[in-house]
Amino acid sequence: MAIRPLVILPDSRLRLVSEPVGAVTPEVRALVADMLETMYDAPGVGLAAIQIGVAKRIVTIDTSKDENAREPQVFLDPVVVWSSEEKRIYDEGCLSIPEFYGEVERPDRVRVAFRDLDGATREIEADGLLATCIQHEIDHLNGVLFIDHLSKLKRDRVTKKFAKAAKRGEAA
Ligand code: GNR
Ligand code: NI
Fold it and tell me: Is 137 among the catalytic positions?
């Protein structure tokens, strides 16, 4: 297992549409192990494979608060199959946009179909932080960032800040 470097805005890889996973090979399992290690090290609540530079439709999430009682969840090829009319607003952050936060409105509850590491098809209904997080991660699989849900003014401001920092070779 290894902690992998995070892909940071304005890296154009964050705009890629990730590819379906296909067969659950030992390489896929090794990638998931690296994603979990990288997510826990960051620390983050979720991670999409593209955030470590791999354009595959893989998401890891752990919304448990206690780091001594970890509850890793792995989603291969996740798809939202139902979302509630009711919305919820959450102050989101992203490991690829460090130290920037913004309020995003999304469906309060979602049903998500996915495959697990045994290749079995499963479905869950998520609410609360898990619902917010899984929608944030599925956005990553489609090249969408949470700042895309903010006003153009806020998005342009943070995009420029990170572009300038990258040019100078600094963190934003
Ligand atoms: O660690 C994370 N926290 C978070 C908080 C609110 C909404 C979404 C998230 S996901 C984020 C990690 C990340 O960037 N995943 O892509
Ligand atoms: Ni993110």
Answer: yes
